[in-house]
Amino acid sequence: MADPRAIALAVLRRVEQDAAFANLALDAELSAAGRMDPRDAGLATELVYGILRRRAALDHALAPLSKQPLAKLERSVLDLLRVGAYQLLYTRIPPHAAVGETVSTARRVGLDRAAGLANAILRRLAREGAPPIPPGPLAALEIGASLPRWLAQKLVDLLGAEESVAFAEAIDGPAPKTVRVNRTRTDRDALAARLREEAPDLAAIHEGRLSPDALRLEGGGALTRLASFREGMFSQQDEAAQLVSLLAAPARGDRVLDACAAPGGKSCHLAELGAGEVISLDVHERKVRRIAEEAARLGLSVVRPMAADAGAPLPPDASGPFDCVLVDAPCSGLGTLQRHPELRYRRTPEDVARMVVGQARILDNVAKAVKPGGVLVYAVCSPLPEEGRLQVDAFLERSGGTFAPAPLASAPFATDGWLLETWPHRQGMDGFFAARLIREA
Questions:
Q1: What would the CATH number be for the domain defined by 239-439?
Q2: Whole-number Å distance between alpha carbons of 344 and 354
Q3: Per-domain boundaries in the chain
Q4: What pLDDT is stored for residue 255 in this prediction?
Q5: What's residue 34's pLDDT?
Q6: Is 381 a catalytic residue?
């Protein structure tokens, strides 16, 4: 029988050692484990995401109980302690079972040498509990939400003390399960009825909060197993990402360039919205093939993926002119911490500075492919102003009046009709920034 704690340890190791994305590593480990009790698979999932979201809080609880500084412990041993501590502090698993099963897992995965240490520390934690987190918003973000100090300080400066804590609390919960209706094959009501029929284990289905193409789902298993998914009735996509394509709002028959397209969700949405041709660029051949597969599943023959670097001279077929150009630029991804909690440990201020330079290069390069009167949409899944509004302001200044804001007549989700800003704690979706511009000359 597969051990959910052992699976969690394997995933945490891959996230740390191989810089793997937690969702992909978890899917791989669960697949390798074969048929599992859904409760065990659920526990493995909760352990992985819970530990990544609360690692600093777990270490804050464990540190006073260890004779050695946690940084000097073997990483596999420290992860084992975190697995046990998470069960004790954040689940309803009885303390004796949490400790006993964690010690058994230690022996099962070749950590016999740590079994005694784990038993002693976890028993003390069960008796004494965790020490309180020091007061103040920075401690709440650094310890409670495991955010690095530089990011915690940025959020406090940007949002203020109270709202930054609300942001931290939002990203410590599971990301919403959201799908986008393929409006070329069905509509939202029909898809909802189909999902209720195919997946009776879904606890609830709600309409999206802002996107007319979104359904929010509660409960249920993997959606990719459903016949409606295989038939291309829907895609899995966060609602904020859907709003970016809706902000672009291509007219029927428009020629569109999606300059940084992988994994293809926005390219396909633009096609579903009526674009006549969508050129989808990505620098990696493997990702280009993935875009093609997704477009084929959805029946979107107007999507044309090709391998190219959006920051370099574009190939002839992608050089324009285009009615609409979307730049969903490579960014820090810090708006997706709810979905990708591991990113908080990987991003540095130096990373952000480097990405800002790359974003500007791509913007300047692909802006030349927009025809006069055409639309340019710039987007990032980041709450940082230097990647969002400041980047757009700098581009508008560099453009010397060639580009200007292009408000939509009806876009209740956009500020002044041309700026999109979403937050996990405000709208309950990923954090995105996007701006809609028009080429005037």
A1: 3.40.50.150
A2: 17
A3: 4-128, 137-171, 177-236, 239-439
A4: 98
A5: 86
A6: yes
User: pLDDT per residue over 74-91, tens digit each?
Assistant: 999 999 999 999 999 999
* pLDDT tens per residue across span 420-430: 999 999 999 99
- CATH fold, domain 4-128, is N-utilizing Substance Protein B Homolog; Chain A (1.10.940)
Query: In 3D, which of 271, 318, 328, 264 has the Cα closest to residue 291?
Result: 264
Task: Please check the confidence at residue 441 and state whether its pLDDT lies above 80.
Answer: no
Amino acid letter, 253: G
pLDDT digits (tens, 9 = 90+) for 126-147: 999 999 999 999 999 999 999 9
Residue 107 pLDDT > 70, yes or no? yes
| Alpha-carbon torsion (180, 340, 57, 221), positive or negative | positive
Residue from 260, 268, 324, 381 carrying the catalytic annotation: 381
Query: Where are the strands (E) in 184-243, listed by range?
Result: 202-207, 214-219, 234-236
CA dist list (Å): 124 to 63, 100, 132, 253, 336: 12, 13, 16, 66, 35
Q: What is the pLDDT of residue 1?
A: 66
Work out the average pLDDT over 162-167.
Answer: 95
Topology classification of domain 177-236: Alpha-Beta Plaits (3.30.70)
Return the SS3 of 422.
strand
Contacts of 296 (CB under 8 A, 6+ apart): none
Q: What is the 3-state secondary structure (H, E, C) of 250-294?
A: CCCCCEEEECCCCCCHHHHHHHHCCCCEEEEEECCHHHHHHHHHH
